[in-house]
């Protein structure tokens, strides 16, 4: 993990007595005299992570805020006195909105966004509620484009395409071949799945789905096609959405809807726009730490 992120993973566990009430993975790195804590890490192009609370949905409002204020106090003590960080940045799971405990603790709050398509009524219902151009593009690709789930053995082809796309825009793809191979080997197809789109037998583009509980999330990929003039990316996402429904997932997430360019594509699916709570706090040299935080790689 350190090889990819340049940070040390700290698994923070908050307990009330002997009962675990929350867990939060935090990635700690040094920049000069600063010790910086991030969840998710700067590297890896992960849009959100943050804490997970035990049995949060089953609590009353009064007990929820008690949990959040108690958690925040314990978390900040661990960050400042335990691992001695000067700066912390958190991006919470989609849909978590109660920022009061963070504000009371001196965090600055802003909202990011992601899009989630409900698969409960099936993929055809999802397609009917999508934009007319998405439906036209899917029909245009029928019989000409093959989008399919692929094995990890085809990761090199996927990497060549996305690395080339990043180079075109003067950026470096943040994930190495070694890291992705390790990820697929250790997590397996129940947690991560590669998809590729082909035209006339030539691989044009691909994406990676991250799989967790009831949600399949488009995590990486979907670069511009290699040579095809067809709307291959639309067909690829539609096929991944169908696969997700067939494999029992109830939601399909198009991760990161924060930029106008990304939103232009992701809004085609007409998914729910979910807020992602972004919180940061710094004791010293806030502007320096903020500038470092802008090093997060872009998603394409």
How are the SSEs ordered, and which strands pair?
Blueprint: H1 2-5, E1 8-16, E2 19-31, E3 34-39, E4 52-53, H2 61-82, E5 87-91, H3 100-104, E6 108-118, H4 123-128, H5 132-141, E7 145-150, H6 155-168, H7 177-187, E8 192-199, E9 202-212, E10 215-221, H8 232-246, E11 251-254, H9 260-266, E12 272-282, H10 286-293
Parallel strand pairs: 3-5, 10-11
Antiparallel strand pairs: 1-2, 2-3, 2-4, 5-12, 6-11, 6-12, 7-8, 8-9, 9-10
Helix pairs in contact: 5-8
CATH fold-level topology of the largest domain? Aminopeptidase
Number of helices: 10
CATH-defined superfamily of the largest domain? Gcn5-related N-acetyltransferase (GNAT)
Low-confidence runs of at least 5 consecutive residues: none
Residues in helices, as a percent range: 25-40%
Top CATH class of the largest domain? Alpha Beta
Q: What integer value in Å does the Rg equal? A: 20 Å
User: What is the 3D form?
Assistant: globular
Distance between the termini: 22 Å
Description:
The chain has 300 residues and is of the alpha+beta class. The protein folds into two domains: 2-111 and 277-293, Aminopeptidase (3-Layer(aba) Sandwich); 120-249, Aminopeptidase (3-Layer(aba) Sandwich), CATH 3.40.630.30. The protein has ten helices and twelve strands. The chain has helices spanning 2-5, 61-82, 100-104, 123-128, 132-141, 155-168, 177-187, 232-246, 260-266, 286-293, and strands at 8-16, 19-31, 34-39, 52-53, 87-91, 108-118, 145-150, 192-199, 202-212, 215-221, 251-254, 272-282. Strands 1, 2, 3, 4, 5, 6, 7, 8, 9, 10, 11 and 12 form a twelve-stranded mixed beta sheet that branches. It is globular. It starts with a helix and ends in a 7-residue tail after the last helix. The model has no long low-confidence stretch (mean pLDDT 90).
